[in-house]
Amino acid sequence: MALTNRDILHKYLRHNKRFPHIWCPGCGIGIVLGACLRAIYDTGWSKDEVVFSSGIGCTGRAPVYVDFNTLHTAHGRALTFATGIKAANPKLKVVTMMGDGDAVGIGGNHFIHACRRNIDITAVIVNNMIYGMTGGQQSPTTPRGALASTARTGVVEQPFDIAELAVASGASFVARTTSYHVHQMEKLIYRALAHPGFSVVEIITAAPTCFGRRNKYSDAVEMVKEQKAMAIDVKKAEGMGFDERRSRIVTGVLMERDAPEWTRTYAEEVRGESPAGDSGNSPGETTPEETK
Ligand SMILES: Cc1ncc(C[n+]2csc(CCOP(=O)(O)OP(=O)(O)O)c2C)c(N)n1
Ligand code: SF4
């Protein structure tokens, strides 16, 4: 019998040892973590074959609370550790949860190269558009004009579009949603986990304390209502020009394609192993689709 949401959280959270958690009331990071756990449950993977890693930040705290093989590493280095683990043991299912600063600020170079390499890791990026843990400094995704502790009169730079950056850098599965769209979030994370290559799910996330308060949102509810209003499905956004797309949150799957996966290519071309090699979702192994 399938577990309820509550059972799934109890199955995977280190609730007896590590709680209470550090996240503010209304922060979307817990919503994203819950969706990750339900998606992992749906894959049928055992706790022992999952590696859950992060860098540093409020988002980076997530692995502390979950009962997989976990790594809480250095700011911006989540993908370097994840890459090392996947390279050493391609059978492991490696999931990395990062904040926007972790992923495309200090870790930006690692991010584009993980995309280019197309290594079979799932990157779940909580884009709350600010450096949360350190008190609200401008990040590479803070919108133009938004206030931050390091941008007292408003940000004067253009933000990165993380999902578009991932597509341009070569990631073979790229999707985006928001902390309002919880069911879509869970489905997209599941599809990313099932995808044999570097998969990215960017989640525009409400951070009421570090972004909302400074930018005059009354509460987290107002923030997620705005996400709902700004969201547009990727198919409906197809005819839009650059500026119009940038004024909305384009949601759904932006890229999904077959492409050579790094651990398989390495096994075949460097180690001389047979094409059926030992990458994460190799033929003959259990895939999420089979276990669903
Ligand atoms: C090398 C290094 N530089 C800076 C810091 C300080 N620091 C810790 S968390 C953080 C920002 C986190 O922002 P983000 O990655 O967006 O995650 P969030 O807290 O918003 O979830 C910074 C700058 C650090 N720990 N290590
Ligand atoms: S400081 Fe910001 S990102 Fe961190 S838990 Fe609070 S609301 Fe969330």
What do these coordinates show?
The chain is α/β, with parallel strands linked by helices and 292 residues long. It has one domain: Thiamin diphosphate (ThDP)-binding fold, Pyr/PP domains (Rossmann fold), CATH 3.40.50.970. Helices cover 37% and strands 16% of the residues. The protein is built from 13 helices and eight strands. The chain has helices at residues 5-12, 15-18, 29-43, 78-88, 100-105, 108-117, 162-169, 182-194, 208-212, 220-230, 242-246, 262-269, 288-291, and strands at 50-54, 69-72, 93-99, 121-127, 173-178, 199-204, 231-233, 249-256. It has an eight-stranded mixed beta sheet with strand order 2-1-3-4-6-5-8-7, with helices on both faces. α3 packs across α8. Thiamine diphosphate (TPP) is lined by residues 56-59, 75, 99-102, 106, 126, 128, 130-134, 139. Iron/sulfur cluster (SF4) is lined by residues 23-24, 27, 29, 58, 128, 132-133, 207-210.
Strand content: 15-25%
Q: State the end-to-end CA separation.
A: 12 Å
Rg on CA atoms, Å: 18 Å
Number of strands: 8
CATH arch. level architecture: 3-Layer(aba) Sandwich
Write the layout of secondary structure elements.
Elements: H1 5-12, H2 15-18, H3 29-43, E1 50-54, E2 69-72, H4 78-88, E3 93-99, H5 100-105, H6 108-117, E4 121-127, H7 162-169, E5 173-178, H8 182-194, E6 199-204, H9 208-212, H10 220-230, E7 231-233, H11 242-246, E8 249-256, H12 262-269, H13 288-291
Parallel strand pairs: 1-2, 1-3, 3-4, 4-6, 5-6, 7-8
Antiparallel strand pairs: 5-8
Helix pairs in contact: 1-3, 3-8, 6-7
